[in-house]
Amino acid sequence: MAIDKDVLIIIKSSGLGEGEPDLGEKLMKAYLKMLFESGELPDEIIFMNSGIFLTTEGSDVLDLILDMEEEGVKIASCGTCLDYYGRKEKLRVGSPGNMRDTVASMGSHQKVLTP
Fold first, then answer.
1. pLDDT digits over 51-81, tens only?
2. Residue 1: exposed, middle, or buried by beta-carbon count in 10 A (0-12, 13-18, 19+)?
3. Which of 27, 72, 80, 92 could disulfide-link 16, Cβ–Cβ 3.0 to 4.6 Å?
4. Helix (H) or strand (E) holding 104
């Protein structure tokens, strides 16, 4: 696996796209799976808003995100979002971050992507 130090991905939702929530969750799961299988991983992934549900207890993609972390991807979840949804104690992968960290990460990567 290769880590692209120039790439930051920001996941803003537990689903991908707009419309049916179940479809969005399936699409997000497929996106994360294909990202991992591509062999080209980003330097960091930041999960924000309802995206934090992907890094907390009960997530269908928790093992996949743990695999990415084991490969060297930095994983962060918005601390304010974890507090808002009452999920701080349920964080299972990565670490809580804050907006200062997010802004710094956005400024230090050449490519900032959102699926």
1. 999 999 999 999 999 999 999 999 999 999 9
2. middle
3. 27
4. helix 99-108
